From TrEMBL:
Gene3D superfamilies given in the database record: endopeptidase domain like (from Nostoc punctiforme), PGBD-like superfamily/PGBD
Biological process annotations from GO: proteolysis
Keyword annotations: Hydrolase, Protease, Signal, Thiol protease
Any matching Pfam family: PG_binding_1
Key word Glycoprotein present: no
Homology family: Belongs to the peptidase C40 family.
Annotated organism of origin: Streptacidiphilus fuscans
Protein name (record): Peptidoglycan-binding protein
Length: 556
């Protein structure tokens, strides 16, 4: 029921979260209206033999999600518009198919390339993967590598084969992250690929008791996250990943030299004190200011340094950029703005004027509401969550897919299978009418239990509240409560302990004396409402009710 595979995700750093304006009724709750129809297998009789522009249905939802697994970044809305057409044509060109923009049998087959012939992904940092992964390797380590690179914006077909395309993507990733560009995937590249997955928490004030008196190379934690942000605020250009590697060490030495400190690369009391000079927040960036505030210029341009830029950079990172959030509108931020403008059919000038702001305010719930507030402001998020969950369960078409919903952004995705079919370790498999096991997950778009919970909280908040982790990651973000304290929209985790969970559902309240929940239960089922007791067994006997202190709010 739960995917335990680690995936890169951003750390939750906000407490007050907004609801999307388009999902708000005046004076009421969010409307549980999903823009995208439920996905339909492209090879089913429900889908046209040749799909063309203008189609609007669940077949297009499936098509868009499949294209996104191949590295595209389409809005999954079920509408075969110009953006989807362009992605289809690009995909056909990249895979050697005749470029006509139509999705026929050959294109469909290539879209479903992630099949049982693809090696199951293996954690790059496990002993099963080489210390240095190089071109020519064919294994589950490469499957994982390609998946991670696609989450960073590559356009790779996931086949487990380290060919020229994967090599080029590795080199591009290394260049973007200021690593040695050799095309080999060693320790530093692996660490960068997993990003914040290696960090155990958010940024921690260096002066707190939680951080070592002397921080040294090799440390990986929230203290290093804060250190890197502070160094960037003083002019460095580090990727904020929480890992104290050689580049961070060099940046510390440069900072010490520039500030008349003893140059040893260690971050002790004197270096910490100097780092906090002339910065406005504990993580080194000016405090964020909503882009629609009168405090932000009508046209933001390169060279600006303030909280408006902090907000801009945070938003651009939700769109797949990898900017240091330092409040400084430099060359990298300029390039990211241009990329966002190009992707959204805006005039590409690198300036953040009214048209660009309008698109940002529409896309990102953090800045969605006007400064006067929006309906539901400061209400708890749970009622919105349960409204969306009820709508999906009523729709009844979203399948459980093992590992579904754990991509770079929330939403249904193609999964994969693990373990041996027919055994207790198996996940993602089903039997056909002849009793033969096949990998259902790698041929369908859907959600597993934690992917479902993630999407519902995202739909309600307009922000990835739970992140791309599994149940053991999600449970850590909330507060344990008793069942009597639970309200509809809270999460219920199942397992043998709070550190060993394997399923999660969204509490729906008590119906006719029976506690109910919405959940994606297991392969062969769709998202549904059912009694809480149905998920309890000898394998996961305990139910842990969990509340998230998240509210509908805005930054003004």
């Amino acid at each position: 029921m739960n995917v335990l595979k680690r995936r890169p995700h951003r750390l939750l750093r906000r407490v007050l979260l907004p609801v999307s304006l388009g999902a708000v009724l005046a004076g009421g709750l969010a409307v549980p209206a999903f823009a995208a129809p439920g996905p339909i297998d492209l090879n089913s009789s429900s889908c046209p033999a040749n799909m063309t522009g203008g189609e609007n249905d669940g077949c297009v939802t499936e098509l868009q999600t499949l294209l996104n697994t191949h590295g595209f970044r389409l809005t999954v809305d079920g509408d075969f518009g110009n953006g989807t057409l362009a992605a289809v044509r690009t995909f056909q060109s990249e895979t050697g198919i005749a470029v006509d923009g139509q999705v026929g049998p050959q294109t469909k087959a290539e879209l479903y390339v992630s099949s049982t012939s693809v090696p199951d992904p293996i954690d790059l940092e496990s002993s099963s993967c080489p210390a240095n992964i190089t071109g020519g390797e064919v294994s589950g380590c490469v499957t994982e590598l390609q998946d991670l690179l696609n989450a960073q914006g590559a356009h790779l077909s996931i086949d487990g084969d380290f060919g020229n395309g994967t090599l080029a993507a590795v080199e591009a990733f290394q260049s973007a992250h200021k690593l040695s560009v050799d095309g080999q995937v060693g320790t530093l590249t692996k660490d960068a690929l997993y990003g914040t997955s290696n960090v155990t928490g958010g940024a921690v004030d260096l002066r707190s008791a939680s951080c070592p008196a002397n921080m040294t190379q090799g440390e990986v934690d929230g203290c290093v996250t804060a250190l890197q942000s502070l160094l960037d605020a003083h002019g460095a250009s580090l990727s904020v990943d929480g890992g104290f590697g050689p580049l961070t060490f060099s940046a510390v030495e440069s900072f010490q030299s520039a500030n008349g400190l003893s140059v040893d690369g260690q971050v002790g009391p004197q270096t910490k004190a100097a780092l906090y000079d002339n910065v406005s927040t504990s993580v080194g960036a000016p405090a964020p200011i909503a882009l629609n505030s009168s405090s932000c210029p009508a046209n933001m341009t390169e060279g600006e340094i303030d909280g408006c830029v902090t907000s801009l950079q945070s938003f651009l990172n939700t769109q797949g950029q990898h900017l240091a959030v330092d409040g400084d509108f430099g060359a990298h931020t300029f390039a990211a703005v241009e990329a966002f403008q190009a992707a959204n059919s805006l005039s590409v000038d690198g300036q953040v004027g009214p048209a660009t702001k309008a698109k940002i305010l529409y896309e990102d719930g953090v800045y969605h509401c006007p400064s006067t507030g929006c309906p539901g402001q400061n209400q708890a998020i749970q009622p919105y969550v349960v409204q969306y969950a009820a709508a999906m369960a009523k729709q009844g078409t979203m399948p459980y897919v093992y590992a579904g919903g754990h991509g770079a952004s929330p939403g249904p995705s193609v999964g994969y299978c693990s373990g041996t079919p027919g055994t207790s370790s198996a996940a993602g498999y089903l039997q056909d009418s002849n009793g033969t096991w096949y990998c259902f997950a790698s041929h369908h778009v859907g959600l597993d239990c934690s992917g479902f919970a993630r999407l519902m909280y995202y739909e309600a908040a307009g922000y990835d509240v739970l992140g791309s982790g599994a149940t053991n990651d999600q449970i850590k973000l909330g507060n344990q409560i008793s069942s009597s304290q639970a309200v509809p929209g809270d999460l219920i985790f199942f397992g043998t302990s709070t550190s060993s969970t394997d399923h999660v559902g969204i509490y729906a309240g008590v119906v006719n004396g029976v506690p109910m929940m919405y959940n994606a239960f297991d392969t062969g089922t769709n998202v549904r409402e059912e009694p809480v007791s149905d998920a309890q067994s000898s394998d996961h006997p305990n139910a842990y009710y969990t509340h998230y202190d998240a509210y509908v709010s805005i930054s003004v």
